[in-house]
Amino acid sequence: MARLNVKIHDLALKNPVMTASGTFGYGLEFADLMPLDGIGGIIVKGTTLRPREGNDYPRMAETAAGMLNCVGLQNKGVDYFCEHIYPQIKDIDTNMIVNVSGSSPDDYAECAARIDALEKIPAIELNISCPNVKGGGMAFGVTCAGASSVVRAVRQRYHKTLIVKLSPNVTNITEIARAVEAEGADSVSLINTLMGMAIDIEKRKTLLSINTGGLSGPAVKPVALRMVWQVAKSVKIPVIGLGGICTAKDAIEFLMAGATAIEIGTANFLDPTVSIKVRDGINAWLDSHGCKSVQEIIGVID
Amino acid sequence: MKKYLLDLTVKSVERIHERYVLIKLTDDKPLPEMQPGQFVEIRVDGSPTTFLRRPISINFVDQAQNELWLLVAAVGDGTRRLAQLQAGDTLNCLLPLGHGFTMPAFTSERFLLVGGGVGVAPLLYMGAEMHRQGNEPTFLLGARTAKDLLMLDIFKRYGRVCVTTEDGSEGEKGFVTNHSLLLKEQFSRIATCGPTPMMKAVARYARQSNTECEVSLENLMACGLGACLCCVEKTTEGNLCVCKEGPVFNIRKLLWQD
Question: Disulfide: which of A143, B37, B40, B82 matches B100 by Cβ 3.0-4.6 Å?
């Protein structure tokens, strides 16, 4: 049994496997199917200061080795989260991390400040990369100035581990990563979904209600892996890798590319127990290759 | 209800129609408890264009034989692949999912179960459960032609069966909502599953006749667990996940105005 524990700034993870925001609900939805405390962290659904209804149906389209979604951050708002959901999840024995989104730096900061007050939430993941909402989300994540403005505002009011989730829909992701690092981010996670589109040729209509959506699943993995590798070489803070991870082999690739931890997203839809299998698969691989700790493989690719 | 991820064994695959197959599954252990109207998310192996699981409604649960029946329309590559399963193959199933139909509160309660096309599937299990509890359901089943009426003989075991076909080749000619039964009799509750235009017509009839009515929706979905929020339906309580809060909804909760 290799040592699997890793650290993201002050955040101790029992193993490097987490579940990605928007793909694992609040964890509770999966409690019948797998031990939630078996993974390093659960990043819960994107939360905003005010309730959001999200985009109209249809919000999803299946694509080759992946899917598009344009959910649009449907959630009941941070107050509802604090009052009704937090009590249900606070005793799950793993890192419960809240993904925070907003439409202005002040929005983000206010939402983050309310979550700062929750004792059992040790970190937030700042979503500056949602491709499915207008006037927010990705709008901030595609320029250094926008990304910096959000992180600066949040950093003043959030005192625990601050992870910033980056958009791949940019010319040079390393510039954004360095910009948020300079503003005090403790870690970056990447990638959010890639903007995409699909058309029903018989109906001559797009398959998503807002025409475009975010692509996820194995289709995006090589792009994500490349970006993780580039960012890991460009920043000093720990990098969390995600994008199409379905197997332990996928996860190990991200670790070797420089990710300290990984998130599993769309694969949860295919196999709700996949995160446990990935954890066990990483352990088995380390054992069979004589590695005593997962640290031995993190960032081995120059 | 507790959910399970199980590799069930295919007992048989029967082509009951040029477009539909009936897959009977079993397991070494007793199958989990399932309610009429709930569904299963099945993983389709060997189909490159089928990335996500496929939601399939529970057609029937044979407790004595420890069998779960799924009625599948072989329409795309994935469902055609399912039609090629052989006895002894395994099928990875996530079940039971969602909320099912409201069952009768007492045995003399008069329920009408209205199905169209492959939408008749969950009504068989519902009718059978009602029958087992000493209730006599009335089925109103519609299809395009006589040969498109699925599993008619099995429905007849559990209750009275009324039929419409669009070409008049069996039962009354027209749509389910044209059946003379609806003019003659009053029911305390309607449960319906089928094409959306049919369900909307049934819902209209239910509102006009002041009858409680539940419909089973089949919005496109991914996770089946209420996590991804892709399959939402607009309701009086905002956007709700069909996979978790449904697939069965009381029509009063839906924003079906027409």
Answer: B37
CATH code where residue A234 lies? 3.20.20.70
The residue of chain A with its CA nearest to that of B4 is: A33
Give burial (CB, 10 Å; 0-12/13-18/19+) of A117.
exposed
Our count of domains for chain B comes to: 3
Looking at this protein, which amino acid is placed at residue B65?
Answer: Q
B207 and B240 co-located in one domain: no
Contact list, A25 vs chain B (CB under 8 Å)? 225-227
Return the sign of the alpha-carbon dihedral for residues B10, B98, A278, A22: positive
The helix or strand, by DSSP H or E, that contains position B216, with its residue range, turns out to be strand B212-216
pLDDT digits (tens, 9 = 90+) for A252-284: 999 999 999 999 999 999 999 999 999 999 999
Residues B140 and B203 in one domain: yes
**Do A230 and A208 touch, CB atoms closer than 8 A?**
no
Of A60, A62, A272, the CB nearest to B225: A272
CB contact at 8 A, B59 and B71: yes
- Report if residue A302 sits inside a domain: no
Rounded CA gap, A182 and A229, in Å?
19
Rounded to the nearest angstrom, the minimum Cα separation between A193 and chain B is 14
As beta bridge partners, residue B95 has B4
ipTM tops the 0.85 cut:
yes
Q: Among residues B88, B33, B27, B34, which one has the least CA distance to residue B57?
A: B34
Phi-psi category of B150—alpha, beta or left, where left has phi over 0 and alpha has psi -120 to 50?
beta
- Specify if B251 maps to a domain: yes
Residues of A forming the active site: 130
Contact A69 B220 (CB under 8 A): no
Tell me the nearest-neighbour CA distance from A4 into chain B, angstroms: 26
